[in-house]
Design a protein that fits this description.
Elements lengths: L2 H21 L5 H8 L3 H15 L5 H9 L3 H7 L6 H9 L12
Helix pairs in contact: 2-6, 3-4
Amino acid sequence: MTKEQQIQVEAAAFRSLVEHLQQRSDVQNIDLMNLAGFCRNCLSKWYSAEAKKLQPDFDYADAQQYVYGMTITEWKRDFQTDASEEQKQSFEDSKPLHAKISGHN
């Protein structure tokens, strides 16, 4: 596989992940964080950090809209639920395993 082909495959896999996360609006970010150590916001931050390398004025809100498929305000209104005390505790307990987001302000 050439480097260009690898980039194409990686981009397609990323788009599939984003599409899957958009379809699974029933899955809360805190659950993703607790189970996998990353969530839609992490993905948005990774996307934004890389986009800023090419376009310094790229806005994090634009990255969120791409990943969520809507504005964060719309997502919170339509899909976000309050986290339970158990979810919050699991989040705190799993913090050492959470994704590192370099390059994001």
